[in-house]
């Protein structure tokens, strides 16, 4: 499993954060800060997305 998180300073001075998880070199699930929701890359990740949203895992990312 791989996890990538970070933030970018944009040219207008605003900051954009990112969070992505991967497995075997492929995207698995990411977090969309704008909507406050997880985004599943495929049907297998959809199971994790539902569980994390039910557990309110996004609270720690915002």
TrEMBL record:
Origin superkingdom: Eukaryota
GO biological process: antigen processing and presentation of peptide antigen via MHC class I; immune response
Keyword annotations: Disulfide bond, Glycoprotein, Immunity, Membrane, MHC I, Signal, Transmembrane, Transmembrane helix
Membrane topology, from the record: Single-pass type I membrane protein
Subcellular location field: Membrane
GO cellular component labels: external side of plasma membrane; extracellular space; MHC class I protein complex
Residues in MHC class I-like antigen recognition-like domain copies: 2-59
PANTHER family linked: MAJOR HISTOCOMPATIBILITY COMPLEX CLASS I-RELATED GENE PROTEIN (PTHR16675:SF242), MHC CLASS I-RELATED (PTHR16675)
Protein name: MHC class I antigen
UniProt organism field: Passer domesticus
